[in-house]
Amino acid sequence: MKLRIAVQSKGxxxxxxxxxxxxxxxxxxxxxxxxxxxxxxFPMEVLFLRDDDIPQTVADGVAxxxxxxxxxxxxxxxxxxxxxxxxxxxxxxxxxxxxxxPYSGVAxxxxxxxxxxxxxxxxxxxxxxxxxxxxxxITGSVExxxxxxxxxxxxxxxxxxxxxxxxxxxxxxxxxxxxAVMIANNGLSPEKQAILDELLFRIGSVxxxxxxxxxxxxxxxxxxxxxxxxxxxxxxxxxMPLAQEGWCSIHTVLDEACFWEIIGRLKAAGAEGILxxxxxxxxx
Length: 284
Ligand code: ATP
Ligand code: MG
Known about the structure:
By secondary structure, the chain is an alpha/beta fold. 28% of the residues lie in helices and 32% in strands. The protein has helices at residues 14-23, 54-60, 70-76, 119-129, 162-166, 190-210, 224-230, 259-269, and strands at 3-8, 36-38, 44-49, 65-69, 81-85, 91-98, 113-116, 134-137, 153-158, 169-178, 180-184, 212-220, 238-241, 247-255, 272-278. It has a six-stranded mixed sheet with strand order 2-3-1-4-11-5, with helices on both faces. It has a five-stranded mixed sheet with strand order 8-7-9-6-10. It has a four-stranded antiparallel sheet with strand order 13-14-12-15. It starts with a strand and ends in a 6-residue tail after the last strand. Magnesium ion binds next to loops.
């Protein structure tokens, strides 16, 4: 019994997807990439597809699970469930207008021609807003549509916004916040569900470790209370005596986000010889 996972064969999600599987300890040969590759050490096979085809493939059960952008899942309206948000491939789907065009709200889009590769999401949004506009479907280079007179507005993927700026566009409505998600077929057998559960457990351990650091430091005993007051460890920090009289070693786990701020306060409180180590997995 193998769990078949559909992933993007090349493109923006491929690298992070393969990296995540590797971190989860799943070996997939990448030397000669064929459409379907079995893992050597996990009951899983990987099906490499264009991202457009992933939602339907999972809905049909040709693949059991898949990793795809939420935008693609919503666009295809495929009958598959989201089992995990994966925290990479972040972007948003937005409506943008030529910079000089006045805009005071969605109603201004009535009767306008909007170019997009995501007609389903756009249609649903406009319907929900009660706005009638003319949706013009194009598959690539949506951002140049207004510049060449093809449309009055665009609806497209935005990440940094620099593409919009360089095409003289201004983002006016964010319709969908997207990231890569793991999706699953709705009728998985108990055996396949068990493999998926193991996969999700491993991915969870990798993801919880990703933004954490293991921090060690030495401090005089009398500084201990001041240092502990600064530390927001996962549970309580480990404190061990050092061979040198009156000194101890403190170990804890810190969020990378609050890291620099806390390091400064630890030093001020008397910590010395601070070591910061990456954490590979965190089993919660
Ligand atoms: P395929 O050949 O598989 O159809 P594609 O060209 O449709 O690939 P990519 O450009 O590789 O798709 O993007 C895949 C996904 O990456 C998008 O659907 C989206 O979820 C996500 N993504 C994240 N940032 C961006 C970005 N700046 N531009 C486009 N997609 C992004
Ligand atoms: Mg695609």
